Amino acid sequence: MAIARQALRTAVLLVNLGTPDAPTAAAVKPYLKQFLSDPRVVEIPKLIWWCILNLIILPIRSGASAKKYASIWLNGPDGGSPLLVYSKKQSQALEQKFLAQGKDVLVDLAMRYGNPSLESVLDRLQKAGMERLLVLPLYPQYSATTTASTFDEIFRIISKWRNQPELRLVKHYHDHPEYINALKEQVESYWQTNGRPDFAGGDKLLFSFHGVPKRTLDKGDPYHCECHKTGRLLREALGLTSEQAMVTFQSRFGKAEWLKPYTAPTVKSLGEKKTKRLDIFCPGFPADCLETLEEIAMEVRDDFLTAGGGEYHYISCLNTNPAWISGLAEIAADHLAGWPQLPESPEALALSIQRATELAAKK
């Protein structure tokens, strides 16, 4: 007689960069300190950087950053930091997607810096009976400054556990067909509502990715190449040429050379050339955040208009686009292969249905 195999609890952990708890200097300072103290993020000798960070950057930048966060903070009972709000919705929608498919998969969200912290969420999953863990960072393009840092922290946390879970890591999905399709749908959906640029008449589309120091490329980080591949695949999916759709890099910080071309100077140059319409989209950010809503949708827009440009269109990130949720589910399913997720008892099935109902009510 066959022996029934016990189903082990499987969890998918989405991880994003992080956000302060409030748009205030008091909340921004510890968040920035944790973020900028990560040696994966800032590769400067520790003692030198400690002095620069604590004596110069944090006292000056915390207040300035707080004002920027305040300009994009979402109000209302379900408001807060856009990055956290949209990432939570992605997590809930992904779990609901699995439940609708009859898969008993826990889905949760953690932030690499700030809250909900990786440690607290992993502890919650462990208490929920997690035995198998798939880590899916919300960074489509791999970088040591983001993806590797996330993996480092997870390894550090579970190194203290007596009973560790089976572990799988999603390194990147910059060229996954479902991810590219979701990006394409997001852009085309915007054009259906706001009109398509006249590319034959000189209008432009920019794909702006977060920048990193050029030395990371020189040391072998594949981020630069993966951003360009995403840009090329998306451009081809939209039927555009390299002259019509360009890849740039934003958020440069400090005096060191970063990946080029830089977004802001490129946009200013297009404004000076009297470009009639410029659309800008940030494919590397699955959820809108400070870098997209304040830097791109506000600061860079002002640069373009002040320089003499015409219409400026910011295309929102994927956020809760159904095509993106389906893409996330497909990416996760590729890496969950071989781990059974079907409920094996009426009780487990009833629990799954109850959780699906609760998630639907929250949505």
Automatic annotation (TrEMBL):
In which domain of life is the source organism classified?
Answer: Bacteria
Q: What name has this protein been given in UniProt?
A: Ferrochelatase
The gene that this protein is the product of is hemH
Localization (cell): Cytoplasm
Classification via HAMAP family:
Ferrochelatase
Q: Which family does it belong to?
A: Belongs to the ferrochelatase family.
Biological processes annotated in GO? heme biosynthetic process
The keyword Transcription is assigned to this record: no
